[in-house]
Amino acid sequence: MSDVQEDPGLEGRVFLTGIGAFVCATILWELVARRAVQSQPARIPFEPGGQISTGRVVQSDEGYSRTSFDSRGFRAPVPNGKPRKTVLVLGDSYTEALQVSDREAFPEQTQTRLIAKGMDIGFYNAGVSGGAPPRYIAVGPYFQRTLQPDEVVVQLNESDFSTDYFDRAHNFFPEKTGDEYKVVVLPSAGKQRMTKLPGFSTLLRSSLFQMASKKVVTGKAAASGNGRSSKVSAKLAGAELRRYIQWSVKNLRSAYANLTLIYVPYINYYNLDDLGNPCEAILGEECGRAGVNLIDMRDIYVRHFLATGVCPNGFSNTSPGKGHINAVGHALLAEALSERLEARLLH
Amino acid sequence: MLFTSLPYFLLLAVVLVYLWRVKDVNAQKIGLVVASYFFYAQWDWRFVGLLFGLSAFTFVCCKKVRRGNDEKSRKAWVGIQVAGSLATLGYFKYANFFLQSAGSLLHSVGLRPGLLNIILPVGISFIVFEVISYTVDVYRGDTPYEESALDLFLLVAFFPHLIAGPIIKPKTFLPQLKIPTQITPSNLSSGAQLFLWGMMKKVLVADRVAPFADTIFNHPGSFGALTTWGAVVAYAIQIYGDFSGYTDMAIGSARMMGYEIPRNFNLPYFALNITDFWRRWHISLSSWLRDYLYFPLGGNRKGYARTYLNLAIVMLLGGLWHGASWNFVLWGGIHGSALALHKFCVDRKVFPPMPAPIARYLSWAITLIFVITVWVPFRSSSWDTTITIFRHMYTPTTTFTIHWMSNALLFAIPILFVADLGTTRWHEGRRLHLTRFRDQFAFCFCAIAVLVLSPPAASPFIYFQF
CB–CB of A212 and B437 under 8 A? Predict the structure, then answer.
């Protein structure tokens, strides 16, 4: 580095080449990241309210997938043409399933199984991260009009019955009026960074920027001792929990004539005696009362785990038994769903 | 304030600008001490007083040692300083351990002492060892007594090494404080490179394999033999990536400021025997134990049997230094026994003759398997966990496996090789020339890789708990 003292122009050249090197490295990594590490989809307004994803997505934080969403927000692969029977699948991140590939997600696997049995059927995966019963209820008229599904599958889990969704951060949230609830729809959710800062939209959409932002948020959350960036959800309990579940089941049944509910439970594979949230049992009772078809995956997942030692949850880049369902979990779910739907569709 | 966090980068940037602008040596030292205390306060402001107190106590004791009229009083003051420092460490770190361990004995005589509500000050083990080394070095004449308290305060509190070492030898660091440091492009360049290598080891290697090691060690009875072995290997990689990565970041930070602190790791998993391993792993600690414990105990000057005993004692205490748990004592004891056994074999020439390459590879393999296996008690949260892990490692079981854990190891091991190669070359003087576009691009590429490939959640530095 004594060269710097001998050649006064060297500093300037080093600075410029340094900037150039940084830009080149950034561009190279941006291209790699968009293709193979992380790429967020574009967000477009959704007619019933809020936004949906469209375009390509790459996700590698939990599991891995490279997929896309069409202009209606359905995850690939979307059925070609117009199948004789259509099935709409609604759910949250377990259905959106960005942790597994297109072929491994349970709607696609269920479709494959039923096609193999000779059915002309197509599944439309409308899973949305953060989805919950208020959303599924509110979008019913829209999908009945645009898709006219023959069957509707709604995937639920215990977070659907926490207070996570009782605030205006969500497009669709339940507002309590007396002993009843009603769905409140907001036209858009959260901050519209793109419209507020149109000049920086390219930067904001870049994969590197999004990864850096996520690291900062995660780091802040970890430093504050809260593992989640949002407030900790409180669980509904007792009579309130039952009332909310009853309302959810009743309104889902009203919104969709041929309805099947799937419950994906939280299972503690290190302590199978831990039966988790009471909402699971209440959901079973209310579905029985309302005559709604329910598939509870607990027994199936536990049986599989005990027989094979393989957890239906967890990925090679997270922890086994934790987080979203993996390819095994999706396969088991597809098997259970295809058996139930086959029986319904053939009658 | 982790080394991998934005606040640390900001602090480092502020300090570098300060040192660049301020040329007076005392003003520089004052700024560094302030920055170091600020850094420590971010961990827990309540213990800033402890840091100051230990430094001031050491200063006063060393003054007495320096000015003592006779050998007896000088020794007495060394004893006071060492006893006081160890008492501080003992209280914060070991009080509850001894109370728990003595619990059954005390219960038998009708005493039921409760546990004390003590918070462990971060870095206390390193701080205490630093002040003891200074005191003993002053007594021995290895380092001159510093009339200025500022130098001593900076030696102890210098923020790159404050929390988890390396333990700096006073005689190598204090002379650097006599002249103003200079922020030069060369130092910035070489320091930044080593910092980056360290960050890669920590973020891309240690943090990537941590979830698997954590899962198996938290649920030791739930996994098969292969998975358990995989987790133990993962932990061996994790602790090396974590600690050597931290050390590289510490040395790199110091280098950017124009200061040299010693290397702490030298490819330890390539050691050919256990003695070689301890010359390569946590070098500053093993040097400290040698200079201030092994030699005072007599070293190897009192016969074979005493030598082996001294090795065992030193490593037992070295294990206990890591943490207040019998698991750490076991870990240290096993290493001490292995060192003694190796010394015995070397002294008695019991190794059978064999071709050099075979002997070399065999020796390396045995050492590596031994070291990896003995990490189990070091990592385990309890004695039961240790036993369960060992049982699952060496007994075929049918409990469930994580066969896809290998993905993390396949990802981490090559990166560890690359980062270790970079670190080794750095210490050999072979560094990137950050005046050239090619090397600048390589640096930027690796720096952005840390962002892109890092896991969603960072794990805390393992050695910060000591």
Answer: no
Q: How many other C-beta atoms are found inside a 10 Å radius of the C-beta of residue B448? A: 21
Please name the residues in contact with A263: beta carbons below 8 A apart, sequence gap of 6 or more. Answer: A155, A156, A157, A280, A283, A284, A294, A295, A296, A297, A298
CB of A216 within 8 Å of a chain B CB? The answer is yes
Of B10, B466, B459, which Cα lies nearest the Cα of B235? B459
Question: Would strands A51-59 and A42-45 be described as parallel, antiparallel, or unpaired?
Answer: antiparallel
Determine phi and psi for A318, rounding to 5 degrees.
-130, -130
The DSSP call for residue B355 is -
Is the pLDDT at B124 greater than 80, yes or no?
A: yes
Q: How near does any CA of chain A get to the CA of B183, in Å? A: 12
Partners of residue A151 on adjacent β-strands: A87
Q: How confident is the model over A25-77, as pLDDT tens digits? A: 999 999 998 888 888 888 888 988 888 999 999 998 888 999 999 999 999 99
pTM of the full structure: 0.85
- Residues from chain A that touch B405, judged by Cβ atoms under 8 A, are 316
| Residues A266/A269/A270/A273 CA torsion (nearest 10 deg) | 70
Beta bridge partners of A85: A121
Catalytic residue among B107, B219, B282, B322: B322
Helical (H) or strand (E) element with A52? strand A51-59
What ipTM goes with this model? Answer: 0.79
The pLDDT confidence band at residue B307, using thresholds 50, 70 and 90, is confident
A207 contacts A38 by C-beta, under 8 angstroms: yes
CB contact under 8 A, B445 and A211: no
CA distances in angstroms from A107 to A127, A144, A149, A155, A334, listed in the order given: 10, 19, 14, 11, 7
Under 8 Å between Cβ of A314 and A326: yes
Q: By 3-state DSSP, what share of chain B in percent is helix, strand and coil, each rounded to 5?
A: 75, 0, 25
CA distance B451 to A216: 11
> Which of the residues A15, A302, A316 would you substitute to probe the B interface, choosing the one with the greatest number of B C-beta atoms within 10 Å?
A316
Q: Does B212 touch chain A (CB under 8 A)?
A: yes
Quote the percentage of chain B above a pLDDT of 90.
51
Cα(A61)–Cα(A52) distance, integer angstroms: 21
Over residues B415-428, the pLDDT tens digits come to 898 889 889 989 88
- Is residue B322 annotated as part of the catalytic site, yes or no? yes
Contact (Cβ atoms closer than 8 angstroms) between residue B232 and residue B215: no
Q: How far is CA A108 from CA B247, B251, B389, in A?
A: 49, 53, 40
On chain A, the residues whose CB falls within 8 A of the CB of B449 are 29
CB environment B412-441: b (16+ within 10 A), e (fewer) = beebbebbbebbeebeeeebbebbebebbb
CA A172 to chain CA centroid, nearest Å: 15
The reply to whether residue B407 touches residue A316, judged by beta carbons under 8 angstroms, is yes
Contact B452 A21 (CB under 8 A): no
Query: What's the CA angle centered on A239, arms A237 and A243, to 5 degrees?
Result: 100
DSSP 3-state of A179: coil
**Interface test mutation site (partner B, options A14, A19, A59, max chain B beta carbons within 10 A):** A14
Q: Is A200 on the interface with B (CB under 8 A)?
A: no
Tell me how close the Cα of A319 comes to any Cα of chain B, in angstroms: 6
Contacts of B364 (CB under 8 A, 6+ apart): B270, B271, B272
- For chain B, say whether A215 makes contact (Cβ under 8 Å): yes
Q: Please tell me the distance from the alpha carbon of residue A18 to that of residue A24, in angstroms, as a whole number.
A: 10
Task: Tell me if A320 and B449 make a contact (CB, 8 A cut-off).
Answer: no
- Pick A18's closest partner by Cβ from B5, B224, B440: B440
Place of tokens 């030898």: B169
